Amino acid sequence: MSGTVNPIIPGFAPDPSVVKVGDWFYLINSSFHFFPGLPIYASKDLISWQQIGNAINRQAQLSLAKSDANLVLVDKGKVMIASGGLYAPTIRYHQGTFYVVCTNVIHLPGKEKDLTENFIVSTDNIWSDIWTDPIYFEFVGIDPSLFFDEDGKTYIQGSAAPGPYTTINLFEVDLNTGAKLSEEKVIWRGTGDIYPEGPHLYKCNGWYYLLIAEGGTHEGHMVTMARSRHVLGPYESCPNNPVLTARGTAEYIQYTGHCEIFQDEKKQWWGTCIGARIDDQGRCTMGRETFLTRVAWDNEWFTFEQVKLKPSLLETRSSPNLTAKPGVDCLYIRDAVMSNYRVTGTSVTLTASSVDLSHPELSPTFIGKRQRQLHGTSSVVLQGIEESWGSAKILAGLACYKEEHRYVRIYYDAGKLEVVFELVNVAKKIARTEKHVLGKVPPSVAFRVDYTEKEYRLLYSVESNTGQDWTCLGTVDTFDVTNPDFTGPVIGIYALGQTAGVQVRFESLKVD
Ligand code: 6LW
C-alpha cells in the first residue's frame, strides 16, 4: 500500500466510534454546536470513507441553542475552548437496529457545571435519514457507550462526573425507554491521570476489556485498558498502560486517544482514534481528526501501533465509490433557521439575519463545510449586489469558522462600499481588520481563501473570478486560530444585515 492513509477522516472529526455490519464499516464523530449533528461515514476498505448521513438531522430531535463554548484557563495562561453540544457518540448494531448514544452538553449561564443530557437515537436503515427522536436516560456525565452482553443485558458505560473528577461508571439500561435497570457502579478510575473518559467495553475469550482515554484530549491524551472476568468488575489495569499515546514524543500526530477497536472480516483488529497533526511550531490547523491504526491481540492484552500518516496495512482492500448525497456534508450553526437558505443548482440564496458569527446562542445565517484539505482553496462569488443593500447594512462573504470565539473572514460591506478582512480570536485576544474601499457598487465580488498548514490567505476580486486579478487583503498565521479546543475549521458563506429579509445570492461555493 502506497501513499498516505491517515487521517482517514480529515478535519474536525473527533471522538470516532465504529461498527461493522455486513461488509460495511460505519463511523460516527462528535459535532458540538453544528447542525446537522453526528455525521456518519461508510467504508468497505477502512481508508476511503463517504459521509452517508447525520444521526441528528431534524431540529425537532433536540436543540443546540445552549451549546456555546466556555473559555477555560488551563496551564501557563493557555485558554482552552470547550464547546457545548454533541459530544463523543458511540455507534452499535443489535438485532437489526443501529443505536447511537451521545451527550448534549448544555451550558447554563452563571452555573459552574454544564447540564449533560444523555440520549439514544436509533434507525433500522442507516442509509436513510430516518433516525428516531432521542430517548433520554439518567446519567450525569459524558461519553456514553453501549455494550450488549451475551446474556441479553444491555449496559451503558460512561465518563461520570457527579463531582470534579470523572470515573468510568456502568449500569444496565432498557434501550426502548431509557430506564436504568441497575444501580450505577464505578467500574474503573483509570491509571490515575486526569479525566478518565470515552469508555468502550468488548468481550473476547471470556474477558471484558475496557478501553478508555485519560489525560485530557490534548497534549496528555492516552489510551489505557483494563479487563475483568465480570462485567461489573473488578477491572485489572493492563500492565502495559498506556497502550497508545503520543505524549512526550516527537510524533507529528499528537493527542492520540479516545479510541475504538473493532475487527475486520479476517479477524484482524483495528483502532480508530483521535489525533491531531501538530507542526513543529505547535500549529494545529485541522483540529482533532480521525486516524486508523493496527491493533493486535495476543489472547491476553491488546497492543497498538503508534499512529502514523501511513499505518502498516497488510493488503489493499477495495471499496466502492459511493455517490455523494447532496447536502449531507453541509453545516449550519446551532438551531438554524432553515427558511434562510435556498440552494438551487450552484447558487445559494441566503436571507441575511442580524445575528453575527460571534453570537453565543442564536444561529447566524451561515452554511459551510468542514475544511478537509490541509493545503487547499475555497471560493465563492457574491452575485446580484443591489444598491439598496447599503441602507440594509448588508455584510456578506466567506468565513473560516471554528466557533463564536474564533473565525477569519472576508466580506463585502454594502453600507461602506468596502471589502473587509477580519480575524477574531477572543481566547488569544486577537482582533484584526484590513479594508479596501471600492467606492462604488460592484457587479459581483469573488472571495477566496487559500490555505496551507501555516497560513490562511484571504483574497477578493471585483471583476471576475478567473484568478487573474485577485487581491490579497489579509493573511493569518494558523497559529492565531490554534487553541486547545474541541472543534475544527468549517468554511462557508454568511450574510449579516440589519434589515430583516434581505436576500443575498452566492454562486459556485467550493470548499476543499
Ligand atoms: C469527549 C471526550 C474527549 O467527550 O473530548 O478526546 C471530549 N476525548 O471523550 C470532546 O470531544
From TrEMBL:
<keyword id="KW-0326">Glycosidase</keyword>
<dbReference type="GO" id="GO:0004553">
    <property type="term" value="F:hydrolase activity, hydrolyzing O-glycosyl compounds"/>
</dbReference>
<dbReference type="InterPro" id="IPR006710">
    <property type="entry name" value="Glyco_hydro_43"/>
</dbReference>
<protein>
    <recommendedName>
        <fullName>Beta-xylosidase C-terminal Concanavalin A-like domain-containing protein</fullName>
    </recommendedName>
</protein>
<keyword id="KW-0732">Signal</keyword>
<dbReference type="InterPro" id="IPR041542">
    <property type="entry name" value="GH43_C2"/>
</dbReference>
<keyword id="KW-0378">Hydrolase</keyword>
<feature type="domain" description="Beta-xylosidase C-terminal Concanavalin A-like">
    <location>
        <begin position="349"/>
        <end position="507"/>
    </location>
</feature>
<dbReference type="GO" id="GO:0005975">
    <property type="term" value="P:carbohydrate metabolic process"/>
</dbReference>
<feature type="active site" description="Proton acceptor">
    <location>
        <position position="15"/>
    </location>
</feature>
<feature type="site" description="Important for catalytic activity, responsible for pKa modulation of the active site Glu and correct orientation of both the proton donor and substrate">
    <location>
        <position position="143"/>
    </location>
</feature>
<dbReference type="Pfam" id="PF04616">
    <property type="entry name" value="Glyco_hydro_43"/>
</dbReference>
<comment type="similarity">
    <text>Belongs to the glycosyl hydrolase 43 family.</text>
</comment>
<feature type="active site" description="Proton donor">
    <location>
        <position position="197"/>
    </location>
</feature>
<dbReference type="InterPro" id="IPR051795">
    <property type="entry name" value="Glycosyl_Hydrlase_43"/>
</dbReference>
<dbReference type="InterPro" id="IPR013320">
    <property type="entry name" value="ConA-like_dom_sf"/>
</dbReference>
<dbReference type="InterPro" id="IPR023296">
    <property type="entry name" value="Glyco_hydro_beta-prop_sf"/>
</dbReference>
<dbReference type="Pfam" id="PF17851">
    <property type="entry name" value="GH43_C2"/>
</dbReference>
